[in-house]
Amino acid sequence: MLDTTMDQLRTLLAVHEEGTALAAARLLGREQSSVQKQIDTLNRKLGEHCGEPLLRKRGRGERVQFTATGEALARLARGTLDEWRGSLDSARRRSGRTLMVGSTRYTLGYLLDAVEQVNDRLARDDVELRIAHVRSGSLLEKLRSRELDLVCGSVLTSASAGAAENEARFEGYEVMEWRRSGLSLVTNEPASQLPGDTAGVRALATMPLVVSADGIIPDFLRGWFGADYRRRMRIAAEIDSAHYGFELLSSGVLYGSMLVTQGIGEAIAEGRLPEARGLRTLRLVEDMGPSLRVLVGAFRRRDPGAGGPGHPVSLVWEALLRRNAGAGTYAGTGDPRTAGKRPSLAGSASRPSVGAAH
Question: CB of 289 within 8 A of CB of 169?
Fold first, then answer.
């Protein structure tokens, strides 16, 4: 048993997944004879130890048959390799050899600008950089599960910046706050149907709405209209991205309105989102409670003993601070401290970032 290697376990899994030694060899980029030799060795040694072979060969070209013992050991091999891989990955990230960051679509420009500032340093230190697209609804979970080390995006929060019961959700995180704002309404309906430049939350219940299936906008609707808001409102279409909604409304196939963050609404009104050209933007007035806001910024975990001044996470964090000079930061204590004037997310001199996505 102690002579079993990680490579043998990987080979066993490849045969289990692919069905034959030939297919496993192709997957691993090796000779079939090498794969077959390892499988024969495992089958003999572990089979003798367990009292049953791991697998039985069938006809030429047919998938091998794994026994109950083989299936159990394949599951064990997968768990062992996954655990080792995860532990090694965690060790690399603690020591700053791997950096995993993410952003929503409309904050990607801010993240890329920050990464570009430190990219030479990351390359010099041989840091492996991975970037992921995240949805606002899963932003904090990606940090909590340690899938990501730093994220840029938006979360739902209360209009009261100092509400301890609200900000307690940031316990264990450091937050760089760029903006805290409400929502806007983007519509293709004529001015005769929606006159003026404002609309009330209460009126949303009677409007044909284009609504994202998940993310921060449904969180707003649940807060205002309850968990069964879909049944209580006129949902004309469900979408999976703001871009899809803009294209749908611009096509004129249906008339309706779509909720977006205020930063996106401002970008549309100023003509900085080509995909939303021709649509009107209305400011959303909260004429019913609760009073909710979008908090846009950067987020990272507060890990004791990790993320020192030279750590890649700290380098990107400091670059984001420089990029957004004057941003307020606080350490998730339930009583956030903001400093200076928060920069508007209505635009970027170098990249077309416009605030928070759905």
Answer: no
Residues 347, 215: Cα–Cα separation, whole Å = 22
- Residues of the chain with pLDDT > 70, as a percent, come to 85
What does the pLDDT look like over 111-140, one tens digit per residue? 999 999 999 999 998 999 999 999 888 899
CA distance 234 to 156: 23
166: which 2 tokens? 């609200």
Residues with Cβ within 8 Å of residue 79, at least 6 apart in sequence: none
With a CB cutoff of 8 Å and minimum separation 6, the contacts of 321 are 176, 327, 329
Kindly state the tokens that stand for 17. 């997944």
Burial 183-214 (b: 16+ CB within 10 A, else e): bbbbbbbeeeebeeeebebeebeebebbbbee
pLDDT surpasses 90 at 67:
yes
Query: Residue 307: is its pLDDT beyond 90?
Result: no
Q: Which one-letter amino acid corresponds to residue 349?
A: A
Distance from C-alpha of 302 to C-alpha of 296, rounded to nearest angstrom:
19
Distances (CA, A) of 10 to 19, 53, 314: 14, 18, 36
pTM metric for this prediction? 0.69
Question: Looking at residue 239, what is its pLDDT?
Answer: 93
CA 94 to centroid of chain Cα atoms: 21
* Statement: residue 351 has pLDDT above 50: no
User: Are the C-beta atoms of residues 262 and 256 closer than 8 Å to each other?
Assistant: no
